[in-house]
Specification:
Pfam families: DUF465. This is DUF465 domain-containing protein. It comes from Sphingobium ummariense RL-3. This protein is mainly α and about 60 residues long. The chain has one domain (about 1-55). About 80% of the residues lie in helices and about 0% in strands. The chain is built from 2 helices and no strands.
């Protein structure tokens, strides 16, 4: 699913952006917090899409 892959790429890119801001000290705490919040929302959306792709298996 294309949407899922795009979300994964954006999530991974946010990891790099957050790390770069923290490492260089150039980002303020509010900016880092906003990026982290966005990353969490992406993770939630990725999880929802993954769950929709995998059918529930009744044991």
């Amino acid at each position: 699913m294309r949407r899922l892959e795009l979300l994964r790429v954006e999530h991974r890119d946010l990891d790099g952006a957050i790390a770069a801001l923290i490492d260089t000290g150039s980002g303020d705490q509010m900016q880092v917090a906003r990026l982290k919040k966005r990353k969490l929302r992406l993770r939630d959306e990725i999880t929802l899409l993954e769950d929709a792709l995998v059918p529930d298996i009744i044991a």
